[in-house]
Amino acid sequence: MLFTSIYHMLSKSENFHPDDYEATVNPKKQKPVILTLNNTLQFLREQGADPETLKLIQQQCTAQTEKLFKKVFSTKGEVRPKFRL
User: Fold this and answer.
1) Is 20 a member of any domain?
2) Which of 27, 49, 52, 76 is the most exposed place for a label (fewest CB within 10 A)?
């Protein structure tokens, strides 16, 4: 890469312009993305996924989430252990 830069500088009689130097030395940190159902579906829509398939996925995930929620937070007189975060 260095020789390529030198070649172009000499062949074009130009000064060296390190356009990507700052990005290489100090790269920007990417924010972590929290994946949710809505984020995932939006990404799939942008990629051109079939709307009917996306609707089916959303219905299935919502139904499973509701079942899990009911199972974990059922109030049938059972004492559930407290969760610590």
Assistant:
1) yes
2) 76
